[in-house]
Amino acid sequence: MTDLVVRRLLIDLETPFARRWCGGDAFLSALFDALSMSFPIGEQFFIDAVKGGLLAMPPEQQEKFRTEVQGFIGQEATHRRIHSLFNAHLQRQGLVNEWEVRAAARLKLMEGADPRHALAVTAANEHYTAILAEWMLVNPELFADAEPRLRTLWLWHSSEEAEHKSTAFDVYQALGGSHAWRVTWFRRVTMIFFGDTLRQTVDNLRRDGALWHWNTWMSAARWLCGRQGLVRATLRPWFAYFRRDFHPRQQESGLARRWLRDNAGAYAVVGPG
């Protein structure tokens, strides 16, 4: 089991920030803004899925998972709140969150389903957020010239995502979730996740007036397909998820723990979940 603590991020999210807050890079700013737009509704779904999984267990099994699940819920609830504040600034800048609308419609289709389906969806998404987290932590130049408080926000979020990446997966396994459904949902989540990320990023760039700028496409080529690109960083861990013996902890680098240790002044530990 994983010991998870809830941290309160000590940054100012009341003061507005520039639209191209990520070092003036329109593409990176639009990409991270798009991801942030997915978090409030997504993290509420993850909270509900893991909580529902815990309640579906027999009492003796619940005791085994209760503390970790509480920590998971506490961390995700904090992420949801922080990104809601972040997204409010994006809305005032004229960006429109279409991702949330599409996600809400899809999530209604899962109401009343076996709780293991929601857990499989959550585990798949948590794997993707863990991949993204590792990418951000491995490439500090992504945020080298970014607004300092937002750099802290993204690296703190990344570190906690890496920290709790196993929780939904372990609850799914404990409830007897099958390998077949785990990988089936992973394939579906792959198409939805990348499709929504692309659509929202393009829409953000269009509203920013940067969609057809040469620098935008050069940045996209570098950070998606280049040596440090997200596609290259994603391939190996993406294929790994299909192995029967896969577990999220097999992909452990220590960068998240190091960031949390070295930046302890950026947050306050509220306590265990």
What does the model show?
Helices cover 67% and strands 4% of the residues. Strands 1-2 form a two-stranded antiparallel sheet. With 273 residues, the protein is mainly alpha-helical. The chain is globular and about 55 Å long. It has one domain. The model has no long low-confidence stretch (mean pLDDT 95). The two termini are 14 Å apart. The chain has 10 helices and 2 strands; from the N terminus they run βααααααααααβ. The longest helix is centred in the first third of the chain and has 34 residues, at 59-92.
Mean pLDDT: 95
The biggest beta sheet is recorded as: 2 strands, antiparallel
> Could you say which structural class the secondary elements and strand pairing correspond to?
mainly alpha
Instruction: Supply the number of structural domains.
Output: 1
How is the largest sheet built, in terms of strand order? 1-2
Task: Give the oligomeric state of the chains in this entry, treating copies of one chain as homo and distinct chains as hetero.
Answer: single chain
Assess the beta-strand content as a share of residues.
Answer: under 5%
Total helices: the number is: 10
Enumerate the spans where pLDDT stays under 50 for 5 or more consecutive residues: none
Order of helices and strands: EHHHHHHHHHHE
Radius of gyration computed on alpha carbons: 18 Å
Taking the alpha carbons of the first and last residues, their distance comes to: 14 Å
Helical percent range?
55-70%
Set out the fold topology.
Blueprint: E1 5-9, H1 26-55, H2 59-92, H3 98-108, H4 115-138, H5 148-163, H6 167-174, H7 179-208, H8 214-225, H9 230-240, H10 255-262, E2 267-272
Antiparallel strand pairs: 1-2
Helix pairs in contact: 1-2, 1-3, 1-4, 1-6, 1-7, 4-5, 4-6, 4-7, 4-9, 5-10
